[in-house]
Amino acid sequence: PIHCGAIPESLLESELFGHVAGAFTGAERNKKGRLELAHGGTVFLDEVGETSPNVQVKLLRVLEDKVVEPLGAEGGRKTDIRIVAATNRNLKQLVKEGKFREDLYYRLAVVTIELPPLRERRSDIPLLAEYLLERECAELGCSSAGISPDAMAALMDHDWPGNVRELQNALRHALVLSGRGRLEARHLPEAIVSTGLGRRGRPRKLTREHVMQALEKAKNNRKRAAEILGVSRSTLYRYLEQ
Fold first, then answer.
1. Alpha carbons 58 and 12: distance in angstroms, whole number
2. Cα 227 from Cα 229, distance rounded (Å)
3. How confident is the model at residue 201 (pLDDT cuts 50, 70, 90)?
4. Residue 211 to residue 215: CA distance in whole angstroms
5. If DSSP states are collapsed to H, E and C, what string results for 188-215?
6. Which one of 12, 41, 177, 184 has the minimum C-beta count within 10 Å?
7. 152 lies in which domain range?
8. Both 104 and 169 in a single domain?
9. Is the sign of the CA dihedral 174, 179, 185, 186 positive or negative?
10. Is the pTM of this model over 0.70?
């Protein structure tokens, strides 16, 4: 994967398309870009909405003509790749604002998959949080005692404007503060804890769909389902008795 928003604009063009010796200061030898190296395969461009107009023009040529243009080269080089792109931005709105090429948008949007934001699939948060925590521990070479119910409730209550990346960052933050022990609510970033405390002052509105999803994920373990929903067991029991 290539994260277009994480690579400085001055470097992204060279990273994607490559360059020839002398194309810019420091370019002492030819370099193939990621798109040329992926010939015959697939390239995943994350945050494609962050690309500059110059990069968008070159991406369009790759898609339309199957040609990669290295920086400083007099001509292009044939390549055959498939591009899969993702973004958190509203590309249609960017097109209207003139910030994203309309022709490139339609080239990329042949088949689209819209993933709902994390706030619209809260029942996924517990399993996702546990998975991300395990992954963080694997990278750090440590183990964790898991996530406490209070911490999980705070995670469930937050709106996650940054979606999965924000969740991952919050867990990394908590893991460091916990001394790699059990993650408690106090280990989470203040913004997440304060949001959760505000919402937990109000009863959570349960829906049948959310309850059924939680019970399915918990394999009908009501205690675990209550943790997934971020409510007490008594609240869940009262709902089920209705």
1. 12
2. 5
3. very low
4. 6
5. CCHHHHHHHHHHHCCCCCCCHHHHHHHH
6. 41
7. 118-241
8. no
9. negative
10. no
